[in-house]
Amino acid sequence: MSVLTDLIYGGSDAVIGLTEGAVNDAIAKYGPDKEIAFPDTAYFFPTIYAATGVKVETLGTLPACVDVMKSLVTHEEDLGAALNAGLATAVGAEIIEGLKYLDGAQPYENESGIGFVPDPIIRSLGVPLVTGDIPGVAVVLGSTDKPEEAAAVVKDYQDKGIMTFLVGDIIEQVLGAGVKAGLEYRVVPLGHDVTSVIHVVTVAVRAALIFGDVKPGDLAGLLQYTKDRVPAFVNTFGDIDAVVVSAGAGAIALGFPVVVDVDLGENQVPGALESVVDHTQTSPKSLELRNIKVKAKAVKLPVSFAAAFEGEIIRKNDTYVEFDSDHNVTAELVTMKAADEVEDHKITIDGPDIPENAEELIRLPLCTVVDVAGAKMQPDFESVIERKIHAWFNYIEGVMHTGQRNLFRIRISKEAFAAGLRLKDFGEVLYGMIKDEFGQVVDKCQVTFITDADKAKAFLDDVAMPRYRKRDDRLANLTDESVDEFYTCILCQSFSPAHCCVVTPERLGLCGAVSWLDAKATFELSPTGPSQPIPKEGLLDERLGKYTKVNEVVAEATHGAIENVTLYSLIEDPMTSCGCFECICGIEPMSNGVVIVNREYAGMTPTGMTFGELASMTGGGVQTPGFMGHGRQFIASKKFISAEGGIARIVWMPKELKDDVATRLNKTAKEVLGIDNFTDMIGDETIATEPDELYAFLESKGHPALTMEPIM
Ligand code: SF4
Ligand code: NI
Ligand code: CU1
Prior knowledge:
With 712 residues, this protein is α/β, with parallel strands linked by helices. The protein has 3 domains: 2-289, 3-Layer(aba) Sandwich (Rossmann fold); 307-476, Bifunctional carbon monoxide dehydrogenase/acetyl-coa synthase(codh/acs), Chain M, domain 3 (2-Layer Sandwich); 481-707, Bifunctional carbon monoxide dehydrogenase/acetyl-coa synthase(codh/acs), Chain M, domain 5 (3-Layer(aba) Sandwich). It is 36% helix and 15% strand. It contains 21 helices and 23 strands. The strands form 6 sheets. A 6-stranded parallel sheet has the order 3-2-1-4-5-6, sandwiched between helices. Strands 10-7-13-12 form a 4-stranded mixed sheet. It binds iron/sulfur cluster, nickel (II) ion and copper (I) ion.
């Protein structure tokens, strides 16, 4: 036997032994009927479920799973057989980790890792993954005597937006060397035991089930999906033992290359298992092996500038300067100008710059004024560009931006200011990113920061507010009837190969990130890109929103997977879902209406299903009548399931969602139903989570759904 296969089998045998022992102990202690589950997932033990179709719900199911593990370990010499043994190790790791959650235990609570990643987080990663905002997923495990070098590798991934999961003592080593960690920084400690590496494997496995419509039990389909569509790879630091090698074999079976920092000599498997002893080459080699391409940065700053810093929070005590609308005039405005009115790359500060050496928190007014000119620029694209300011400023390490237009807050941390970050750098960010992302329509771009209080006030009143109002009027009049074309969006096909969103003025993409204006701009920026126009032709049924042309274009975009799709129905050929939807709506039969649940809500709903369970009813680009993913914005739309009676069908939402959409939803309800404060009639978790309680509440409020014709 080769050293490599020897190690793999040795590791698998060890893990089988551990797993069998742990299962037997647990059954002896709790009995075979004891329920077992990972937190907040609709996919049971995901690896076992995806690979075999078996739903692990009680301890009694596990001995058969151990038998499957054993059957995978043949001790045959060839590499393919050894990789199967690696899969057995993954199954064993899943069982060992799953047993830690017995009795509702939170095994990672007092550890520096997070353990099992709940379904909603995976769904929330859909959009950043498809847009390349997260270009890849790194698993870094082991222990090193060169913490600085390991930290440099992880920092490099962070700088590139790669999501990095840490396993083992490397967690403290990398964090100790100053890397900021947490989901919001895209550096996520999983746990200390090697088996916790399964928590990233189940993310990949669930991506196949959620987005890829891979059927449970289709092992070949699963392995093909993870190999082709999950851009993950593994780096190990320090000595590797049999269990690590065997887990690595599991990763290779899933299509994830493994780079180790010890010299394996002739035991390397080119493209799958390679030695890189020089840590400066770990990242480049890993990216090369997984074919991950990272775009060169459009901006250079004294601090990091990366999507990984988007979620960073700056606390008040750490803030050097704050621009916020509670204390001062603020505005952000992108305006289209004539070419001769714009001087390319001019950055001006009109008023005082941020004072140096301040002892106390500084507050200043700020109007961020961006003028753009270009032959192909359109006024409709102003707001599309303007909304990106939020993300771009957040990419700056040590900067937090919330809000938009005249209501926002920007904080610059003391650390970032000390590192040399100044207002003019914000101008470089805007200039660089606008040219990078909107270069097709923007030929010239200039930026002015108004910090003088009087001038800022004048700008807000005389220029910005009238412009915002004009745009709002345009949006209010932008209906599905008022335009000549809709747009497709197939960005999510990289994960969900058969999915296509149809984006209309009144129905944005289900991820909530793509409005009709966005899709239109995307088409202008890249005419052969993910958004294509659909001429509004061949109306077949107005109530359903059914068009010959929509069907044709969607059939083409999904390679024939979907041939009929309606824009406004939940029941008849509803739009497909990829998996990254902000909300899911589903029928609640007793009250003859629908519940809408947002991804963030972890509790129970009156349908007897959680968000994750409802969400698992659809996805992967399939149509499931009665279940539909959609954006938050869509809830207040006159087109929301209008074929079934529209918003009058909404009987329940989590409170946070209800409050969030209340103003707009109530406005629509007043207009179309003649009802004041409609949201007061809608249940939430503080009112009812059981269907009969909900029914009683709705009855007491006279909710319209109760007297409408049967929904199905
Ligand atoms: Fe994905 Fe649809 Fe959003 Fe496009 S609009 S990114 S396809 S969810
Ligand atoms: Ni520790
Ligand atoms: Cu999606």
